[in-house]
Design brief:
- Helix 7 links the parallel strand 5 and strand 6 (about 175-180).
- About 40% of the residues are buried.
- Strands 1, 2, 3, 4, 5, 6, 7, 8, 9 and 12 form a ten-stranded mixed beta sheet that branches. The protein has a two-stranded antiparallel sheet with strand order 10-11.
- The chain folds into two domains: about 35-115 and about 225-275, Periplasmic binding protein-like II (D-Maltodextrin-Binding Protein, domain 2), CATH 3.40.190.10; about 115-225, D-Maltodextrin-Binding Protein, domain 2 (3-Layer(aba) Sandwich).
- The protein has helices at about 15-35, 45, 50-60, 75-80, 95-100, 135-140, 155-170, 185-195, 200-205, 245-255, 255-265; strands at about 35-40, 65-70, 85-90, 105-120, 145-150, 175-180, 195-200, 215-220, 225-235, 265, 270, 275.
- The protein is of the alpha/beta class and about 280 residues long.
- It starts with 14 loop residues before the first helix and ends with a strand.
- Helices cover about 40% and strands about 20% of the residues.
């Protein structure tokens, strides 16, 4: 039995048939690619479980899929500079504002906040328990207590370095200071297995299942405030960026519906993030 493969006399596929097939293929690929955007974000937004809650709601509202690449904020910004992302969801305000000033994004939108906490062994060998993060890090350095730093240029790492600068200036962080070059979850795992101190965002900590004997020791310092922002990568820098679809995500996540979805995400009846988009 012969399969039909074109009109009689034109062979397997006439030139105009090839052109038509190519056009259909390109159109099909274009439609498929238009149905998703790539987001470069922090490990905290993913490992806290927020995106598993938030992104299905966005897809229902928009029809768009969001492909998340979860890395440290510094790496996320680098991805966007290379044109490898359409939208950013990160938490290092100073770096974000510089990103906009340098022309890589047109505007930064505040979207939500939570806070950082200092985690450590309940016995607290360095005696850091309290509300003062700077005093706590100074005690950790003086005691040469084990401290796990992410060391990955993330928003959490940037905040940690600011606190260390206030605590010890250019001095030593102590012999127990170690950089893992890893995300928030792995850093917490290392701290849990070694009984070390570690700075974490509260959202990831609340969703962290392998706590071992770790506990929150320092919280409530106003300097531990942790703001998140969203930005569309500037298409003037990278014309292939899906700026219109990326803007749909930004518009939704700062809208009442998106902000309510953020507020609704809880672990153990505890809210992990607090929406604060500015109309």
């Amino acid at each position: 039995m012969k399969c039909w493969n074109g009109f009689k006399g034109f062979g397997p596929l006439a030139p105009w048939g090839k052109a038509l097939a190519a056009t259909v293929l390109v159109a099909t690929v274009g439609v498929a690619s238009a149905q998703s955007i790539t987001m470069a974000s922090t490990t905290s937004t993913e490992q806290s479980g927020l995106f598993s809650h938030l992104l299905p709601a966005f897809k229902q509202a928009s029809g768009l899929d969001v492909k998340v690449v979860a890395v440290g904020t510094g790496q996320a910004l680098d991805m966007a500079r290379r044109g490898d992302a359409d939208v950013l969801f990160v938490h290092d305000q100073a770096a974000e504002e510089k990103f906009v000033a340098d022309g890589w994004a047109v505007k930064r939108y505040p979207v939500m906040y939570n806070d950082f906490v200092l985690i450590g062994p309940p016995a607290d060998p360095a005696g850091v328990r309290g509300q003062d993060i700077v005093a706590a890090l100074g005690k950790i350095a003086a005691a040469n207590a084990e401290f796990i730093s992410r060391g990955d240029k993330s928003g959490t790492h940037a905040a940690e370095l600011r606190y260390w600068k206030l605590a010890v200036g250019d001095g030593s962080k102590g012999r127990g200071y170690k950089e893992c070059g890893c995300g928030m979850g792995p850093a917490l795992n290392i701290a849990a297995s070694s009984g070390a101190y570690v700075l974490a965002d509260r959202g990831t900590w609340l969703n962290f299942k392998n706590r071992a004997a770790l506990a929150v020791l320092v919280q409530g310092d106003r300097r531990l405030f942790n703001q998140y922002g969203v930005m569309v990568v500037n298409p003037a820098r990278h014309p292939h960026v899906k700026a219109a679809d990326a803007q749909k995500f930004v518009d939704w996540v700062i809208s009442p519906a998106g902000q309510a979805s953020i507020a609704d995400y809880k672990v153990g009846n505890e809210q992990l993030f607090f929406p604060n988009a500015q109309p």
